Amino acid sequence: MKADERKENETNALRQWLAKMATRMEGRWLYTLVGVVVLGAAAIFITMYWYSSRAAARSNRIMEFNSADTEKKLNDLIKSDSHKSHETVIWSKLELARIALYPDGITKLGSLNSKDRNAAIAKVEEGRKAYLDISNEFKDRSAIQQEIWFSLAAAEEVLLGTKKADNEAEYRGSFDKMIEYYGKAAAINPDSEVSKRYAAKAKEMQANRETVIMTYRRLAELGVTPDQIFQPKKGPFEP
Question: Angle at Cα 160 formed by Cα 123 and Cα 216, nearest 5°?
Fold first, then answer.
């Protein structure tokens, strides 16, 4: 009898202990669950805030790039800390290369004033260097990469007959580099009509190397501007 009572008491004590532990565990699990939910919500909020901040910053950079319509604004953007290490810097460099080579360079090579023509030649060289500096930055954008190689070829071509300022025995443009750049432009999407034209031009010019070089040199000689021909006569006492 006593043994049965003792066993029942032990069983009741065990039940009470288990019930007490279960109650404690339920409370802890509740706190744990609440903590996990709060931390999860905080993590989601922080992540969303981070992504929205990045999107807003990128949007601002794009807007600043789109409004940079002068060389000064583009150069300021390149130097800006907010654009450092972002794609807008490379795109700004591309725009500067375009401006230097085309509107400020090749377009003005036919100027009637020697000062303007020399400035245009300098801009062509500047544009050539700017394009060369970014020649490895657009490998995932075939159209831009092709523009870069074509522009470098065009720069070399228009400078074939232009003598160097510090050594008139040498010329600013390189025939071999021109052919190389036209070839690289033609190698991008080679089955396209544009690429086929580049390839055909390179082949034709290579086949007529000496004629092409002499033609450009002759054109450069004929490109003497009026202000160089019609120099005002100096007076008898002028040095």
Answer: 115
